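help with this record:
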Amino acid sequence: MEDKNKDILKRYLDYHNDMIDKVGYSTRALYTTNASQKKRFRNFEKLFHRKQDFSLLDVGCGFGDFCGYLNEEGYQNIQFTGLDINERMTAESKKRFPDQQFVTGLVEALPQGTTYDYAIASGVYSLGESMEVVQDFFFEQFDQVYEKVNIGFAVNFLSSYSDSPDNICIYHDPIPLLEKCMKRYGKYVILTHDYLPHDFTIFVYKKMND
């Protein structure tokens, strides 16, 4: 664990472990609701070109809920890899989805040389000292993810345009973040801000859709 990231990782572990102790292994422990989570997941489906035969990396996978969502929505033959720094979450995910792979750690913990068609991260980059610090951490991790994906990735963030921000989470200004992604990863980038009033998602593709 790099020193500069210790604060973010400690906040994440402390908050979610405390919530697990209070409410158990449920979406409430992830600081969301079932309804909001489903809307985020449905929005992620825009990333995929088809509903079968692809590999996916879920960064900050929590309890593997997105894997369950894909199963419920009829996706077939998905090679799912969940990644989370919280070993309590990856252990629970392995119980729920024993046929899929779950890794504890940051992106650096993934097997060397492994690639994925797509990657997603949901509700991950919302805790930290400041927006700048959290975004630096996001880019540090997703610079590595970008090298591992064949097609593209999607990440959601809490929006600074939210009408009801709290004093716990980090809220991001979507337009500057979109511009940073375009400068960093190329011009095939999409932003959606239409599925929840306090949330947006950035989609990054390596090339134009065929």
